[in-house]
Fold this sequence. Notes:
Layout: E1 7-17, E2 26-30, H1 33-43, E3 52-59, E4 62-71, E5 76-80, H2 83-88, E6 96-102
Antiparallel strand pairs: 1-2, 1-6, 2-5, 3-4, 3-6, 4-5
Amino acid sequence: xxxxxxxxxxSAKVRxxxxxxxxxxxxxxxxxxxxxxxxxxxxxxxxxxxGRLKVMAKVGKSQWATAIWFDTKLGTYLLPVKAExxxxxxIESGKExxxxxxx
Length: 103
């Protein structure tokens, strides 16, 4: 996949995120708040509905097209980590990962 746009790198713990308890929801990595503020300040004009920004993401050797969403309660963007990626990269809830995104 070709990478375009501004590159951001960060570390984050992958965690389960759901308002429905353990039976559903998403596994997400929260961007560091300072990084989220920088992105929101510089690229908010690219956001679509609900604070959604299209990105390319990479964890380990896995790269995929996705989006980050701004969560006003947490004050940061959330990066969903798909089950396919978690399986390929052996990621469980609570594991810290190195992430690269391109916006």
